Amino acid sequence: MAAAALEPWQCVAPRRRRSAARRPRPQEAVAAPSPEAEPELDCGVVLRRIRETEADLLISDFWSLALETINKCLVKHLEQLTAPVGALSEATGELHLNSSPGESDVAPGSTPGETQVTGTCNWKCVCYGIGNFATCVIARNQLTFLLLFLEKCQIPRSHCWVYDPLFSQLEIAVLNTLGVIVLRENEEGKRRVRGAPTIFYMPHCGTALYNNLLWSNWSVDALSKVVIVGNSFRGLGERLLTRILREHYTYVAKILEGLEEHAFPQTPRYTDTFNDTSVHWFPVQKLTQLSMDTWAFQEEPDYQGCEDLEIIRNTTQDPPATDSNLL
Fold first, then answer.
1. Distance of CA 218 to CAs 120, 140, 222, 244, Å?
2. For the CA atoms of 260, 206, 250, 282, what is the dihedral angle to 10 degrees?
3. Which CATH architecture has domain 46-90+119-314?
4. Which of 58, 212, 224, 314 could form a disulfide with 189 if both were Cys (CB 3.0 to 4.6 A apart)?
């Protein structure tokens, strides 16, 4: 599959590194080299590694198969976004939900053998939790996949917001050079789409982050505009005790019957990078079949008494920065 190479970069940002405060994910702990073995890094070194990772990913079977999986979902999602206004209003009208008017639609590139996604949708993208890509191979694979995916889907990098509390100053500088927007505040995943079709790229994130995202967009109108690339929701439902899922991750538990999920392909080279990863979208037909009680419950998650939460909480008392509301 042909794809344009990432543009050459220049970086003039600071080279100082800041230690991360979050406990590393298991994959990061395995993949990250020891400080003694790590050469001194600067923007040029990290950008070169990203280019090398891109070249390997583009020639892999995984890239073409994963892109085909995403494209299948986006084709269906685009059909939903471009459906006549009356059809969506009729489907959601009886629920009397608070919803914002959406905008339609997108133009991802095509995958051989698949229907091409076309249109003029202004999709946004939000990425949470990729970790220390400067030193971790798994995180760098995830970032490179995101960059290539943005290009293939014709989403400008300026329409992509990225955040991880692990990011060092060097990594923030690299991301700024790449042209994506680094969020200044820890949103804990509580970002509303505000009518804009949005793809959330969240590989290997904690369950609470997905739960917070669902809570923030808990309406038929909002969720119908959301696509999530991240941990399999079906897998979460199977692995977690029913009591734990319903008590602490209520919105994940409630949405299992209102989504469509397609698993990423598994290939030996990228098993650690994208294991248990799926593409999720939320068909209006399924959402409207959920009970009124399901939508009436909108209590904000607090996770009191929840063990092994797997996310870093925002301990500041300040309101989110304005860039958290740009979608």
1. 26, 32, 7, 20
2. -20
3. 3-Layer(aba) Sandwich (3.40)
4. 212
Task: Identify the pLDDT of residue 121.
Answer: 62
Burial (CB < 10 A; 0-12, 13-18, 19+), residue 306, is middle
Instruction: Please state the domain extents for the chain.
Output: 46-90+119-314
Query: How far is the C-alpha of 50 from the C-alpha of 5, rounded, in Å?
Result: 11
Query: What CA dihedral angle connects 251, 254, 260 and 265, to 10 degrees?
Result: 60
Who contacts 191 (Cβ-Cβ below 8 Å, separation ≥6)? 126, 213, 216, 324, 327
Low-confidence ranges of the chain (pLDDT < 50): 1-10, 12-37, 86-120, 317-326
Angle at 202 between CA 132 and CA 164, to 5 degrees: 35
CA distances from 59 to 56, 62, 111 (A): 6, 9, 14
Phi, psi (5° rounding) for residue 172?
-60, -40
> Side chain identity at 105, as an amino acid letter?
D
Residue indicated by tokens 């996949």: 145
Q: Which two tokens stand for residue 24?
A: 């590393």
Q: Whole-prediction pTM value?
A: 0.78
User: What CA–CA distances, in Å, run from 210 to 21, 147, 190, 214, 231?
Assistant: 21, 22, 9, 6, 9
